[in-house]
Amino acid sequence: MSVPMTLLGLLEREPSHGYDLKRDYDTFFSRGKSLPFGQVYATLGRLVRDGKIVVGEIEPGVGPERKRYVITDRGATEFESWLTEPVQAEPNLQTVLFTKVVLALMLDRPAEEYLDTQRATHLRRMKELTDIKRGGNLVDVMLADHGLFHLEADLHWIDTTAARLDALRTVVKG
Questions:
Q1: Given pLDDT bands bounded at 50, 70 and 90, which one contains residue 88?
Q2: H or E stretch including 166?
Q3: Coiled coil: which residue ranges (predicted)?
Q4: How far apart are CA 70 and CA 40, in angstroms?
Q5: What is the spatial distance between Cα 149 and Cα 68, in angstroms, rounded to a whole number?
Q6: What DSSP character marks residue 8?
Q7: How far is CA 81 from the centre of its chain?
Q8: Which of 48, 43, 46 minimizes the C-alpha distance to 72?
Q9: N or C: the chain end with fewer CB closer than 10 Å?
Q10: How many CA atoms does the CB half-sphere of 150 hold within 13 Å?
Q11: Model's pTM, two decimal places?
Q12: 165, 119 in Cβ contact below 8 A?
């Protein structure tokens, strides 16, 4: 997740205070890990420094003054470029799952047990995501679907790898 680009997108929608940006970020994008206020304001400071946003009106507040941030043409152009550029196709060919299996085989450790443990972990997470889908709003449902599809692919890979462990052991043991 690109916090600066997400904040630029929220600011393109409308000029906002840091508090409002954090609230909207947490509502739509954080899912379980809220964005710290310090990160919001540090990111806004860098965006101001880089000319991508400016401080608009300043209002008195209960605590410090409340600054309303406004996206600049430069910020809008960079956001548009980021938004329209495709995301790098996943997955990478090197994964932690694969690395652990190969190392387990190289070191004569029980790769089968690792795969079984990983399968159980994936199934637990799939149950959690399925529960979210049952009671969530549309944003939560769509994010849960995304996670479930990736976990399903991982489970397919785990099953295929388990079926090929003897052949892979021969290759890695050379």
A1: low
A2: helix 165-173
A3: none
A4: 15
A5: 39
A6: H
A7: 20
A8: 48
A9: C
A10: 11
A11: 0.67
A12: no
Is-cis flag, bond preceding 91, omega within 30? Answer: yes
Burial class (CB in 10 A: 0-12, 13-18, 19+), 49: exposed
From residue 47, give the alpha-carbon distance in Å to each of 7, 10, 15, 85, 150: 9, 13, 14, 20, 33
Q: For residue range 42-68, list pLDDT tens digits in order.
A: 999 999 999 999 999 888 767 677 899
Helix or strand (DSSP H, E) at 92 = none
Amino acid at 69: Y
Q: What is the pLDDT of residues 159-169, one digit of tens each?
A: 999 999 999 99
Element (H, E) at 17: strand 16-17
The amino acid occupying position 96 is: V
Q: How far apart are CA 53 and CA 21, in angstroms?
A: 13
In the three-class reduction of DSSP (H, G, I as helix; E, B as strand; rest coil), residue 2 is classed as coil
Euclidean distance between CA atoms 20 and 9, whole angstroms: 13
- Show the tokens assigned to 148: 């479930």
Closest CA to 126 of 167, 118, 27, 6: 118
DSSP designation for 60: -
Q: Compute the distance between CA of residue 149 and CA of residue 58 in angstroms, rounded to an integer.
A: 45
Token pair, residue 38, equals: 């310090």
